[in-house]
Amino acid sequence: MKYFELEKEELETLQDYESGDLVPVNNMAKEKRLYESYAKNTLEKTKNINIRLSDKVLHKLKVKAAEQGIPYQTLAASVLHRFANN
Prior knowledge:
By secondary structure, this protein is an all-alpha fold. It folds into 2 domains: 8-43, no CATH class; 55-84. Helices cover 64% and strands 0% of the residues. The chain has helices at residues 8-19, 28-43, 55-68, 72-84.
C-alpha cells in the first residue's frame, strides 16, 4: 500500500539501491553521527520573536487560526515558514 509520492531524487536513490549501485561510506558510525547532529541542529532550534501587529491584523489572524482549529501563533509561524522557503 502506497502512502506517499516519492520525489525525483528519492526515486533515483531507490533505483540505485535496488540495482545495487550504492556504495557504503567509510566509517559509517562517524558519518551517521555527523548527519544526525545536522538534523538535530536544524530541526530542534526555535527562537522566540516579538512582532508588532495592528489590532485588526491580529484579530484576523486569530479568526483564521480558529477556523483551521490551530493556535494563532502556530498559524503565524506556518505563514512565515512558507514565505521564507519560497
